[in-house]
Write a structure and sequence with these properties.
Distance between the termini: 36 Å
CATH topology of the largest domain: Growth Hormone, Chain: A
Number of helices: 19
CATH architecture of the largest domain: Up-down Bundle
InterPro entries: MFS, MFS_dom, MFS_Na/Anion_cotransporter, MFS_trans_sf
Keywords: Membrane, Transmembrane, Transmembrane helix
Radius of gyration: 22 Å
Order of helices and strands: HHHHHHHHHHHHHHHHHHH
Transmembrane segments: 28-47, 59-80, 96-115, 151-173, 185-204, 247-269, 281-300, 312-332, 338-359, 371-395, 407-429
Main location: membrane
CATH class of the largest domain: Mainly Alpha
Structural class: mainly alpha
Strand content: under 5%
Subcellular location: Cell membrane
């Protein structure tokens, strides 16, 4: 069966000369608006964490059923990475980010009025669908609007902005649920997303040569590229060594998400016997670390792209060693300084994972930027979901006591993923030219 061919109007085939300078004031405006949209998307992604207890009461479900919200939402995000990347390349970031915000607004509206699990799940699936399309298109905008040397830095700053969505939204959402109740709070979130879609449409342009574009062209896209099939694009992107290196880099360096979203606090408190205060402090330091490390790594990689490979190899090997120490420490009682080090190494690894997009970008033409980002993102989310699920299954299999040895067993698959990824990344980078 032949794959479908997606086409665009003929008048969009020739790229127009830039009407705004790369990296100028307009570029920062476009990035700033799109980054704010990503902050909102990240807030949507993590909002259920604050509303989990209220959700249990509203829908009358236990913790296992509630976890399905998160799994389905992340699952939709994972599945949509490559299709979302293809749409980013063909429809352009302006339309895709606007549509993503509208879809998330619709999902939160459904969730606001839901009183049964099926309807609530539908709402969260829509939120995951919109969320999946936001980051890819923002990366596409960075490549179009900024000089090559700033790509790594802007990608890292984008990740930092996304993390702020979780931090900034926690208190307002909690206060809103307490003051206004479930329905009005989530309807308010939906209204904010809808309003942001209008702002995106007014201020975001696909590239500097499109001051008020009516087409869906993307700078650097030829007529032949427009007529390629989706399968051709995917095959070509996978064939590039830089894409595979980026995918494995993101796959390997994403284990911090497992600690930050679910298992970090139980591990520190139940597994290692820490008091809640110090445990929260360690996780807070971990959450803050990428906000500092990511821009620094991005800035350095932009100035010295020849050293990116060495940075990544150092990060994956250090992370693998940290996890191996954690699962082999006698008795499982990792000392508090080493536990802090484990969290911080994972956090720095999360920051370094943004270099994966920089590597992959160099090996592919601009018109495939969305597919490239989608495939790289696929690596990180697949390892995250695998780590979350296997840790939970193994904790239950060991009796559910959350003791130190139980966590050592639960973290074996995560360690295995990191070690396998580290070996694969090192092999790919050593076969390539330095920094590539």
């Amino acid at each position: 069966m032949k794959s479908a061919v997606l086409t665009v109007p003929a008048e969009a085939s020739a790229p127009r000369p830039p009407s705004h300078p790369l990296g100028g004031r307009r570029a920062w405006t476009v990035w700033g608006v799109a980054a704010l949209a990503y902050l909102i998307a990240f807030f949507h992604r993590t909002s259920l964490g604050v509303a989990s207890l209220a959700a249990q009461q509203r829908f009358g479900v236990g913790a296992t059923a509630l976890s399905m919200f998160v799994i389905l939402q992340l699952g939709v995000y994972l599945v949509m990475q490559i299709p979302g990347g293809l749409m980013a390349d063909r429809l352009g970031p302006r339309r895709m980010i606007g549509a993503a915000l509208v879809i998330m607004a619709l999902g939160e509206t459904v969730f606001a009025f839901a009183t049964t699990m099926p309807l609530a799940v539908t709402g969260r699936v829509l939120v995951g669908l919109g969320d999946a399309m936001t980051f890819l298109n923002l990366i596409r905008l960075i490549a179009a609007w900024f000089p090559r040397r700033r790509f790594a830095l802007l990608t890292a700053m984008t990740a930092m902005i996304g993390s702020l969505g979780q931090v900034v939204g926690t208190v307002p959402l909690s206060a809103g649920l307490h003051a206004y109740g479930w329905t009005r709070t989530f309807v308010g979130i939906a209204v904010i997303s809808g309003a942001m879609a209008v702002v995106v449409w007014l201020f975001v342009r696909n590239h500097p040569g499109a001051p008020m574009e009516r087409s869906i062209s993307v700078a650097g896209t030829s007529a032949d590229a427009k007529k390629r099939s989706a399968l051709d694009d995917i095959r070509a992107v996978f064939a590039a060594r830089g894409t595979r290196t980026g995918l494995w880099t993101h796959f390997t360096l994403s284990s911090f998400t497992v600690l930050a979203t679910l298992w970090g606090y139980p591990y520190l408190v139940k597994g290692l016997g820490m008091a809640p205060g110090p445990a929260r402090l360690i996780l807070t330091l971990g959450a803050a670390t990428p906000m500092v490390a990511a821009p620094l790594l991005g800035w350095f990689a932009g100035r010295r792209p020849d050293l990116r490979g060495r940075l990544i190899i150092s990060a994956v090997i250090t992370l693998a060693v940290a996890w191996l120490v954690a699962i082999t420490w006698p008795g499982g009682h990792l000392p508090a300084p080493l536990a802090l080090l484990l969290v911080l190494i994972n956090a720095v690894g999360s920051a370094a994972s943004m270099l994966a997009f920089d590597l992959a970008r160099d090996s592919n033409p601009p018109e495939r930027g969305g597919v490239v980002s989608g495939i790289v993102n696929l690596g990180g989310f697949s390892s995250t979901i695998t780590g979350l699920l296997t840790a939970g299954v193994l904790l239950d299999a060991t009796g559910g006591g959350y003791g130190p040895t139980a966590f050592q067993v639960a973290f074996i698959p995560i360690t295995g993923l990191v070690v396998i990824g580290a070996v694969r990344v090192t092999m790919l980078l050593r076969r390539s030219r330095p920094g590539r």
